[in-house]
Design goal:
Length: 369
């Protein structure tokens, strides 16, 4: 049995007629930039994410850059960010001249540990960027309470957790302003790069709308130095079709994860992911931990099971950030995760038979060891 790490067939197969029809409408409209399909998707996604405003942008990194820019991040400011995130979260800070201040995650959930944040706050701290990693919403009530106490903003990087909640409130609706990605492999993915910003603050929404469009609200009149970071009409049309199915896809992901959790419980040498009290998980990734990762990956490959590592190098150890002066051992939890985490297949359309084959393959490895 061959089980790829990711397959789009279960999502895209049945949607092809509707997606092609949507793309044909864009083609025939002769309106390809800042048009009605972007406006429609922004309204639909805002309603689905239970926020007042959604602003479509070019990709997830640009969504974070614009969000931080609107909040005044720049040289001399610090933003607290998880030590084990994907580098895009950090790039958004440094591209504006800000300084990332790394906070360690909880080992059990992989998400930022709220208790690690307060000691990092200095007079230069502008805000906190949380990352809902792998599909689980962070412990947002504690984080937003801490931010309010210290007069800090909160930005959510919600690229991996569309539909996850904390205390029944959706990821992407907690922060002052939030960025998400619709990269094709995300739970809600476009057919190329795409992203969005969500917020309940009309002033911030208007600011990022201006910034993403060359700093202009009226054509050829530029109020500020802006960017070209607009969502494409074709991608917006595709996303509108796919948005109608994301809740069902999330249900399938949770079903697969439940089988994994049940079928691999109690395996010595394998640590399964946990979900924090009050949080829900939509399993963008199903990530386990083991000190025998390389051997397990090889064994699973021999059994026809695809895997990936998310992520092998934490941001503070990346060559791009050598100038920050960090060394190995500075963030031991993030470094341990980088050395031991392994992502197993989880995608809509994956059958129980395929899921059970993954479980059997994992169990056979540890039984053999």
């Amino acid at each position: 049995m061959k089980i790829p790490f990711l397959s789009f067939q279960g999502m895209h197969g049945a949607l092809k007629p509707a997606v092609m029809q949507a793309m044909e409408k864009v083609y025939d409209s002769y309106y390809y930039i800042n048009g009605p399909h972007v406006a429609a998707f922004e309204e639909e996604y805002a309603a689905w994410n239970q926020v007042k405003h959604c602003v479509g942008v070019s990709n997830g990194l640009d969504a974070l850059v614009l969000s931080l820019k609107a909040l005044g991040v720049g040289p001399g400011t610090e933003v607290i960010v998880p030590s084990n995130t994907y580098i895009a979260s950090v790039l958004a800070i440094t591209q504006l001249g800000g300084t990332p201040i790394f906070a360690e995650p909880r080992k059990a959930t992989y998400n930022i540990d709220p208790s690690a944040i307060e000691a990092l706050i200095t007079p230069k701290t502008k805000g906190i960027m949380v990352v809902h990693l792998y599909g689980q919403c962070c412990e947002m009530q504690e984080i937003t309470d801490l931010a309010a106490k210290n007069k800090l903003f909160v930005v959510e990087d919600n690229a991996q957790s569309h539909g996850a909640t904390y205390n029944d409130k959706l990821a992407g609706s907690w922060g002052d302003i939030n960025g998400t990605s619709f990269y094709p492999g995300k739970n809600l993915g476009a057919l190329g790069d795409a992203g969005a910003i969500t917020t309940n603050n009309v002033e911030l929404a208007n600011t990022v709308k201006t910034l993403k469009n060359y700093g202009s609200r009226v054509k050829y009149y530029n109020e500020v130095e802006g960017y070209n970071m607009r969502l494409d009409e074709l991608q917006a049309a595709v996303l509108s079709v796919k948005l109608k199915h994301i809740d069902e896809w999330s249900r399938q992901r949770k079903h697969i994860a439940a089988r994994y959790l049940d079928g691999m419980a109690g395996i010595e040498g394998l640590i399964l992911p946990e979900t924090a009290a009050g949080a829900t998980h939509v399993y963008h990734l199903f990530v386990v931990r083991t000190t025998q990762r390389a051997a397990l990956m090889e064994h699973l490959q021999q059994q026809g099971v695809g895997t990936m590592i998310h992520y092998p190098v934490p941001p503070h150890m990346q060559e791009a950030y050598q100038h920050l002066g960090y060394k190995k051992g500075d963030f031991p939890i993030a470094e341990e995760m980088a050395d031991t985490l392994l992502s197993l297949p989880v995608w809509p359309g994956m059958t129980d038979e395929e899921t059970d084959h993954v479980i059997t393959s994992v169990k056979s490895f540890f039984a053999g060891k």
